[in-house]
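Job type: complex structure
Entries:
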Amino acid sequence: MKKSFALLLICMVILTACGSNSGSKNTTDAGNTGSKSNEAKEITIWAWDPAFNIAALEEAKKTYAAINPDVKVNIIEYAQSDIIQKLNTGLNSGTTKGLPNIVLIEDYRAQGFLQSYKDSFTDLSNSIKGTDFADYKSGPTSLDGKQYGIPFDSGVTGLYVRTDYLEQAGYKLSDLQNIDWKQYIEIGKKVKEKTGKALITLDPNDLGIIRMMIQSAGSWYLTEDGKTPNLANNEALKQAFGIYKELMDSNVANVHADWSQFVAALNNGDVASVPTGNWITASIKAAETQSGKWGIAPLPTLPGNDKSVHASNLGGSSWYVMNVDGADTAADFMAKTFGSDVELYQKLLTNIGVIGTFKAAASGEAYSQANDFFGGQKVVSDFAAWTEQIPSVNYGIHTYAIEDILVVEMQNYLNGKEIDKVLSDAQAQAESQIK
Amino acid sequence: MSIRRKSVLTGWSFVLLSVVLIFIFYFYPMIQALIMSFQTGTGSNLEFTGLDNYKRLFSDAMFFTAVKNTFIYLLVQVPIMIVLALFISVLLNDKKLKFKGFFRTAIFLPCVTSLVAYAIVFKYLFAGNGLVNTFLLNLHLIDTPIGWITDPFWAKITIVIAITWRWTGYNMIFYLSALQNIDNSIYEAAKIDGASAVRQFFGITIPLLKPIILFTSITSTIGTLQLFDEVMNITKGGPGNSTLTISQYIYNLSFKYSADFGYAATVSYSIVIMIILLSFLQFKVAGDKNA
């Protein structure tokens, strides 16, 4: 009996040894950052979406090879959710082994990472200028006055519409230039009547459309400080909820459950329009037979809301350099490619369709080319013009936590619960949950 | 050194490695998680806040939604599955049945498929324009497609159908092996006494299978309380959290929202406590002294 007890003790000793070991590692790693062997010969980058972000990286890699041929750039593709998991577990474990030099993070999540793991990201204030990029990108990519992220793609939104369906209902693309969401629904009813097609497709689990609507009015789920929930007395949010319910009630909405069904609805011609970020262009163009049948109008505004403009943002992401060995090389790579190279942005646009947020690039000639798929419309210069109007808001760190609360309250609202009660309940829950 | 001592020592030296490994990979993380459950903060900014997380647990509406959903699965799905597995196993145990091996394999096959792969297949089967809706529409059983994944009620049903498909065969195997251990002479004696097949089932099969039924219901309970893959891949907890399970809530707290590992650990411990209570209850209700 005594023996087994001794054994147990030994095990405990081993365990505590392991424990303290990992603890000390943590501190040494933190102390080391930015000192030794930062002139690495090899850097690793994580990103998602092979057709978009990875392709953009490949272009940047080619460009950088001409500047510094000694550096080997490894590009690794993971799904976005995998990157989030790996970053969280990696950064939390205290060991920086296995983390990349550069990582792509969605703008809604950026502050969460920057604030949760303060010393893990490199301050790039000396490598790039935040003011070189679209203004609304500075919120997510900087913290305490320091620039951490290299703002990348624009999530600028547009109202993609099937012009052939519109014509059947008696409308032209020009009729959609300065409309609000109410007028949009009225047009949708006509379209449904004449063509039998739904106006829009919605995922009850994804409130992206609400996010677009409220940002167009300079409002967000949180107040300016990025911490206090701003739901109960949020006029823009209340209006956005009303429009969402109207879309559902007036029988112009198709319902989908995930991304592939969403894209299928567009490519099969089941819906007449989709208000979303410009990154959808590649997916819409995948249906080659629909060439010439699409057009892009500015986003509708919130009716009766003076602050609401015809421009908003959905998604969008930026690059971050991590505080691991090779940080200087990684920062140099980013500064000389995505941080300053106007030529690169022209290539990104022509070859991949990436609309960056680097201000100087918007004047390049690739930005003013006509697009045959969209009936000869100069879509990129339109998007570039809208990008400048996007109201800047502080996303804070709780976008998805609040959205999960709102998704439930939205269901209650659709089932007849009173709107003020819906939003005040959401407010109460958000306040108790967000710490 | 006495012989007894020597043999004890030899015994321990055999199991030493596994004991050490179990401590490192099971108990150490468990203790760490317990410690973490007393901390709050995002990412690595954790600080000790005592019982704050546990207090938060009791005022957290989303946690209660997750618990409620999980218990709905438990109360609806586990009994259906146990009865179904029992029924199928008795049928397959029939001496006169031909192609027994084929049927057994066919029914067991679902539970060797990958959890994620089958969940994704189910998502497509039950999509708005998926195979199931098309089939039902063509049979004129329904007029409009059912929102299997987009309607709160039907989404729950979809999950129940999915887990029943995946796990019934697994439980059936336990019953089959137990049935083969029941001496056939008992049934012969019953037959001579004139007992019907139904009477035999309730009078002999069920009582003799009682320990196995208890075992399968406890393992199924634990499995349901940890339900994650299906919900994650088919509905992502939606629509409007109507299929959210406790495990998925833990995932959301850790990775979907801004990482709150402390509170996620607290929610994990709530599952531990529920499993202990439920297993204890099942032992009390169904078990006897020998079980």
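Summary: The CA atoms of residues 261 and 366 of chain A lie 32 Å apart. Chain A touches chain B through 45 residues (CB under 8 Å).
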